[in-house]
Design goal:
476 residues; alpha+beta; 16 strands; 45% helix
């Protein structure tokens, strides 16, 4: 009798394991089918000239980048063409399906068309030679401006994508390989001797003195405005974080030590750029004398909450890559400043007044912007406050200091559930449809509350997450 019970238990256990494996394989197979269906729609129906913008109406008759676009325009700035291309590469890595490599190659060729003579990219590419939006492309089919931009990851995202697809193609495509290496050379030539980068360049930068950051002695509210702020040392919108990632990726693929040397110089600049007490954070942009300066009319000299968080994350990345703890040294002071600068709702102000540390805002009066300490009448076109990442940064710093990886187990635990929801959300045509909820969209597309639309960011995020899901080791 006891033997029969034992046999029954063993059989039930084996049946349970078999059922689990069948369900796991079924989920994986269904996920692969959903991924292909979504990618076939996006590549086959949504792409234009191989590239992408931010948002689309469901009938694809309207397209938005930063404003309405034509079918001849694609967007470089994330989450545009490089972002979608990277998602295809993730899917290719996970499945081995050549279809995804073809889609990614089409996106890469679209970027090659719009590479500027200065080596990088601006935020968009226009394939209509008669359009007023074309720039001075290397292929000779454009004209006008030749400003390679690091703003919002424009050039950096294009380089990272081209470097990665170059590797997937085993460096066999000479056009893609040359474009990636030329862009990296141009990026290196845009680095100042102190390790900083400008927001924009058209040619190699001129040498400047190497100085540490300090507070301006002048009345910063009215003086010290620089018309060509884009030529100065820039941290705004995570310029240095994107550049650091690009240099690391370039070194990983090409094994060229020049990229690690440039990364070290960038880290050294971030050490120099930390403001002294009482505000040991970072500013959006600095003069060549290393003092915070004005940029646009609503971007005053200040110590900045969001940029400081981004720099802390970048310093930890540099310290890990170079295995050099000196890049962790400024972080405790910066974390302490962020903690004492928190707003009551656990947010951070974009700007903190120099020396006083009072949260600083702007109010629109006619066409002018006026400085204020009140957040009652903030213009809605800009992010005046940002979510605090203080606790996450603290945990990452502890891990970095102790030379151990920081793993977010919660994200790993949620992967199965997220993948299932994403697969279920795919409609019969192969689309993930978003509905406008009133929150400001990237590119500021105007639409009524509840309106359905397609998003390159949603597509890329979902395809990438599903690629991670099917790449998980299967249970034995």
């Amino acid at each position: 009798m006891r033997l029969r019970v034992v046999i029954t238990i063993v059989l039930l256990a084996a049946l349970s394991v078999s059922t689990h494996l069948q369900a796991q394989n079924l989920n994986r197979d269904a996920t692969i089918v959903a991924m292909k269906k979504a990618a076939e729609y996006f590549y086959g129906r949504v792409a234009s000239h191989g590239g992408y913008v931010y948002h689309y109406s469901l009938d694809l008759s309207q397209r938005w980048g930063e404003g309405a676009t034509t079918e001849d325009q694609i967007w470089v700035q994330p989450p545009g063409t490089p972002t979608v291309g990277m998602a295809y590469l993730q899917a290719y890595d996970a499945t081995g399906d050549q279809f995804y490599l073809e889609a990614a190659s089409s996106a890469a060729n679209a970027l090659l068309y719009g590479q500027l003579k200065s080596g990088g990219w601006t935020n968009s590419i226009d394939f209509n030679p008669q359009s007023p939006h074309v720039a001075e492309y290397r292929n000779g089919r454009g004209r006008g401006k030749n400003h390679s931009s690091l703003d919002d990851g424009q050039t950096q995202s294009a380089i990272q994508f081209l470097v990665q697809i170059d590797q997937r193609l085993n460096f066999s495509n000479p056009e893609i390989h040359q474009a990636a290496r030329d862009a990296l050379d141009a990026l290196m030539a845009a680095q100042f001797p102190n390790g900083a980068f400008p927001q924009v360049w058209t040619q190699a930068v001129a040498p400047q003195p190497i100085l540490a950051a300090s507070y301006p002695a002048i009345d910063w509210q009215t003086d010290g405005k620089v018309k060509n702020y884009w030529d100065m040392y820039t941290l705004n919108d995570n310029v240095t974080g994107y550049v650091a990632q690009t240099l690391i990726e370039a070194h990983r693929v090409y094994e060229d030590t020049r990229y690690l040397a440039a990364l070290r110089k960038l880290g050294d600049f971030l050490l120099l750029a930390q403001m002294p007490e009482p505000q040991p954070g970072w500013s959006q942009q600095y003069s060549y004398e290393m003092k915070p300066i004005w940029a646009r009319a609503f971007e005053p000299p200040a110590v900045c909450g969001d940029e400081s968080q981004e720099v802390i994350a970048t310093l930890m990345l540099i310290a890990e890559t170079l295995e050099d703890p000196k890049y962790l040294e400024p972080i405790p002071r910066a974390l302490a400043w962020l903690e004492r600068s928190l707003l009551p709702n656990n947010q951070l102000s974009r700007y903190y007044e120099l020396m006083t540390n009072r949260p600083l805002y702007m109010e629109r009066k006619g066409k002018a912007y006026v400085l204020t300490y009140s957040d009652d009448k903030l213009p809605d076109h800009y992010g005046w406050k940002t979510a605090s990442k203080l606790e996450q940064l603290k945990q990452q710093f502890i891990a970095a200091k102790n030379h151990r990886p920081h793993n977010d187990q919660r994200k790993q635990d949620q992967l199965d559930q997220q993948a299932e929801l994403i697969v279920k959300a795919l409609d019969s045509e192969g689309r993930w449809v978003d509905h406008f909820n009133g929150q400001r969209l990237v590119g500021q597309a105007k639409m009524p509350i509840g309106q359905a639309y397609l998003s390159s960011e949603t597509f890329s995020n979902n395809l990438t997450l599903l690629s991670k899901f099917i790449s998980q080791p299967q249970s034995p």
